[in-house]
Backbone:
């Protein structure tokens, strides 16, 4: 097997992808859409004629890449996905440099070519009437600044799926996994039960028609067995409770999204960069999906959205945009008026825990979620893929039915993933807590965070590396987080105008530090215990 590791190259983004010819090709996808009884029999014969090493539940950004990497390692893989059609989603559209590095390690550094992707160089942060620029750091090996990339989610997913379809060791099935098959003791997954359904549970994100194929009364689908089942069924995973029955994702907020179209002048203050606007009462994120389109994501804190049918949600989004800087504010309002339907996605936190059931591995959002404010989700997911592929490689574990070897390998995976995942997960939820709350200590911490960035030097380079997923040392995260907290204390004490007035300001400063610890410490403990 020849190992191919193409690198991400900004200069080649406009070139055709090597997987372009399979972009809209469904000929390699087994489907149950027509003539259910006949199709089921044909698919049943086709699938049972192969001896699969791995069954992957979900052909999304993580599942497709896992399948490709395992197949290139010589494993026979079955991927079961509800719909292989191109989705239309409002998140999963920005890849940090750390995520790009992971894809390069998986031999997929060229999946961004030919999809109208836009390179990103850092973050523009607008705060009240000011702004600060946080560039990505310089790669010491090349002397050049590292890059991220933003894109249409559907274009990116179609490309990674094309890479998956190109592998002869991969079988792509359009159907639904209805259950994980276990042994009598219920402590080991043996395979999956498959029924012929299509469509998406995630209707708000994908706008896909529910074209489920119904079974006759005497039909119950079929079972596929494999030594290893990889669960990668995403944010709304129905199988994560198989591993952790008592734990559920904690809903933090919702993103409401629409698109700004700019065929001529780009209205963003700093084009080809991620944008975080903290000018008003809620965070607003923007990034380009192409040279002529910019995604807008407005955060709505809490578990309940304003009513969309009576116009309350639209009024909220209009009010949120009123505090944006000149230029982008007008483009925001104009394109909001053109948007007939506002798109909504949930933002949840789900800390990782080791997989307790043998014969299965959970990856991606089915295993671990964080707030998407920092755009780090796919970075965590793809590095999980890297660690799994390396430790479950055919060279290390020729036979995946070796449960003891699998358990030892997974322990190594959990050890390897913990620092990077801890940094990205904690940073995302901690920053969101800072930016969304409105009490005085949180406002003080927000002010200090922005002022800290303006100091430059390591006060920019450190947070930039953490945001980009390239600095993975938890001590660096703790250092910068509490540096901000101490700076907030300093700024609070500086408000005193006399020795007498210093005491109440000092008490406020101490309380601010306690609030910072209240935000940070539980998150760190959750991640360390994962």
Residues:
């Amino acid at each position: 097997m020849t190992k191919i590791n193409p690198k991400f190259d900004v200069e080649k983004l406009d070139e055709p992808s090597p997987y372009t010819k399979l972009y809209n090709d469904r000929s390699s996808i087994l489907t149950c859409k027509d003539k259910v009884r006949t199709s089921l029999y044909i698919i049943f014969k086709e699938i049972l004629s192969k001896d699969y090493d791995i069954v992957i539940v979900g052909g999304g950004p993580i599942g497709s890449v896992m399948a490709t990497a395992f197949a290139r390692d010589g494993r026979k893989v079955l991927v079961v996905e509800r719909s292989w059609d191109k989705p239309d989603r409002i998140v999963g559209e920005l890849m940090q440099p750390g995520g790009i590095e992971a894809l390069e390690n998986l031999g997929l550094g060229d999946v961004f070519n030919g999809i109208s992707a836009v390179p990103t160089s850092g973050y523009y942060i607008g705060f009240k009437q000011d702004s600060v620029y946080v560039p990505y750091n310089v790669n010491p090996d090349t002397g050049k600044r590292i890059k991220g990339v933003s894109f249409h989610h559907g274009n990116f997913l179609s490309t990674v799926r094309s890479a998956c379809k190109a592998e002869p060791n991969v079988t792509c099935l359009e159907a639904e996994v209805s259950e994980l098959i276990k042994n009598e003791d219920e402590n080991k997954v043996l395979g999956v039960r498959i029924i012929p359904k299509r469509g998406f549970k995630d209707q708000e994100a994908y706008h896909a028609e529910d074209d489920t194929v119904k079974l006759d009364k005497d039909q119950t689908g079929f079972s596929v067995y494999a030594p290893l089942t990889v669960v990668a069924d995403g944010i709304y995973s129905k199988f994560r409770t198989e591993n952790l029955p008592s734990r559920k994702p904690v809903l933090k907020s919702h993103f409401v999204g629409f698109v700004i179209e700019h065929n001529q002048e780009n209205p963003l203050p700093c084009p080809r960069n991620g944008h975080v606007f903290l000018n008003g009462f809620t965070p607003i994120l923007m990034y380009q999906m192409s040279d002529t389109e910019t995604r807008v994501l407005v955060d709505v804190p809490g578990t309940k959205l304003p009513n969309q049918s009576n116009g309350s949600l639209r009024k909220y989004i209009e009010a949120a945009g009123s505090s944006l800087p000149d230029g982008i504010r007008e483009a925001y309002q104009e394109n909001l008026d053109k948007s007939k339907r506002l798109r909504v996605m949930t933002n949840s936190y789900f800390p990782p825990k080791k997989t307790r059931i043998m014969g299965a591995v959970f990856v991606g959002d089915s295993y671990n979620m964080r707030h998407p404010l920092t755009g780090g989700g796919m970075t965590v997911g793809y590095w999980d893929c890297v660690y799994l592929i390396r430790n479950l490689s055919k060279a290390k574990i020729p036979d995946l039915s070796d449960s003891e070897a699998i358990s030892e390998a997974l322990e190594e995976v959990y050890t390897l993933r913990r620092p990077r995942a801890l940094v990205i997960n904690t940073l995302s939820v901690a920053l969101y807590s800072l930016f969304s709350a409105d009490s005085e200590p949180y406002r003080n911490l927000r002010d200090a965070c922005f002022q800290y960035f303006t100091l430059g030097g390591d006060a920019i380079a450190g947070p930039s590396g953490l945001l980009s997923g390239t600095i993975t040392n938890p001590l660096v995260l703790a250092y910068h987080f509490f540096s901000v907290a101490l700076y907030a204390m300093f700024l609070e004490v500086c408000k005193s105008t006399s020795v007498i007035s210093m005491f109440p300001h000092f008490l406020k400063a101490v309380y601010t530090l306690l609030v910072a610890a209240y935000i940070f410490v539980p998150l760190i403990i959750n991640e360390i215990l994962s």
About this structure: The first strand starts at residue 29 and ends at 31. The CA atoms of residues 426 and 522 lie 9 Å apart. The radius of gyration is 24 Å.
